[in-house]
Each structure stands twice: as structure tokens, then as C-alpha cells.
Design goal:
This protein is α/β, with parallel strands linked by helices. It has five helices and four strands. The protein is globular and about 40 Å long.
């Protein structure tokens, strides 16, 4: 449980592995403050650069048109690389919510919790295409 007392925020004594998923126009760098806080409390933190973001070497022309799967492939690869019994807490912002939704469907056994921080959250009546149409990026 997160404690917001007068000192730095702390999370229960059990150490966790947090996977931080950035939003559109960002990279792993945008999580530097929260990464530092979590690591100083002893947690394992992974902040990934999604395709064509941050220091990811791919260029925008490498993405297929409207391909969320290409964009989130680094997250898919990371989740696939986890040990069979390892579970993570996903935290995503903005467009990172789409990637979280993809890996939640593919790797439910590897996720102990997911936190959508003002992030897209697809569901049965809200598809990826609907989201893209709503924000006019198609």
C-alpha cells in the first residue's frame, strides 16, 4: 500500500517489479522521478522505450500504418522474457494504456496489477480503432 506521509512515499515492505509504460511523444525518460523513488525503496523498475520512442533505434517509417502491435513490440518482448512465475505491476500513461491492454491479454499470469494513469483503456465496447477515431489520429 502506498503511504503518503511527511517523508518520501513508501510501498509495503514486499519488494515488487514495476514496469512503466510511457505515453505518446514520450520515452522511458519521463518516468525518471518515479523510477528513482521506487528503486530507493528497493523495488525493481523497468521503464521501456516503445518503438520509435526515446532511445529506441527504430524510425517512424519502420512502423506499419496504424499498428499498435508494432509500437508496443518492445513491451511484448519484455513480458515474454520474464521468468514463468515472475509477476509485475504495470503502470502506463496515455497511449501506454493500449500497450498495457495488449500484454494483459497475452500474459495475464505475469501481471499482478495494472495502473492506468490517465491512459487509454480499451474494453469490449471501446476498440483501438474507436480510440484512434476519437482522438483523430487515423
Amino acid at each position: 500500500m502506498l503511504s503518503l506521509g511527511t517523508s518520501k512515499p513508501t510501498i509495503s515492505s514486499q519488494k515488487r517489479h514495476f514496469v512503466l509504460v510511457h505515453g505518446a511523444g514520450h520515452g522511458a525518460w519521463c518516468w525518471y522521478k518515479i523510477t528513482t523513488l521506487l528503486q530507493s525503496d528497493g523495488h525493481n523498475v523497468t521503464a521501456l522505450d516503445l518503438m520509435v520512442s526515446g532511445i529506441n533505434p527504430h524510425q517512424i517509417r519502420d512502423l506499419k500504418i496504424n499498428s499498435v502491435l508494432d509500437y508496443v513490440q518492445p513491451l511484448i518482448d519484455f513480458m515474454a522474457s520474464l521468468k514463468p512465475k515472475e509477476r509485475v505491476i504495470l503502470v502506463g500513461h496515455s497511449l501506454g494504456g493500449l500497450g498495457m491492454s495488449v500484454v494483459m491479454e497475452r500474459f495475464p499470469e505475469k501481471i499482478s496489477a495494472a495502473v492506468f494513469v490517465t491512459a487509454f483503456m480499451p474494453g469490449p465496447n471501446l476498440t483501438y480503432i474507436t480510440i484512434f477515431e476519437e482522438v483523430s489520429i487515423l
